[in-house]
Amino acid sequence: MHEVSIIQSMLDIAFNQAESQGANQIHQLNLRVGAISGVVPEALQFAFDSCTEGTIASEAKLEIEWVKAICYCPQCHAEFTPHDWVYVCPRCERLTHEIRQGRELQLVSLEVS
Ligand SMILES: [Zn+2]
């Protein structure tokens, strides 16, 4: 599952950070996830729960900030929110490849002690 490897790599970073700060518990992980990052929220939470079991993050909360998708049409300089997976400009109906935001998938911060 895609989400497991994402969580695994984020936890690797989190464990390293906690260790370098001399912390022995992770309380919260703050993630920023784009609407078109291809990640399923439930799967992300499920992966998080199973990957943190028996670790210093077993009690940690997964906080996700969702970023909505925004595309840009170079033809008429319009920014718009795409629907589904088709990025068609609502004004000129051209397809665009320019995505301004919505693909984020990052660990923003974490709370440890
Ligand atoms: Zn357009």
What does it look like?
This protein has two helices and six strands. The chain is of the alpha+beta class. The strands form two sheets. It has a three-stranded mixed β-sheet. Strands 4-3-5 form a three-stranded antiparallel β-sheet, with no helix packed on it. The longest helix is centred in the N-terminal third of the chain and has 19 residues, at 2-20. The chain is elongated. The mean pLDDT is 94. Residues 73, 75-76, 78, 89, 91-92, 94 line the site of zinc ion (ZN).
In a few lines, what is going on in this structure?
By secondary structure, the chain is α+β, with helices and mostly antiparallel strands. It has helices at about 1-20, 40-50, and strands at about 25-35, 60-65, 70-75, 80, 100, 105-110. The chain is about 25% helix and about 30% strand.
Question: Key terms for this structure?
Answer:
hypothetical protein PF0899 fold, HypA/HybF, three-stranded antiparallel beta sheet, Hydrogenase maturation factor HypA, metal-binding, zinc, three-stranded mixed beta sheet, alpha+beta, binds zinc ion, elongated, Hydgase_Ni_incorp_HypA/HybF_CS, 113 residues
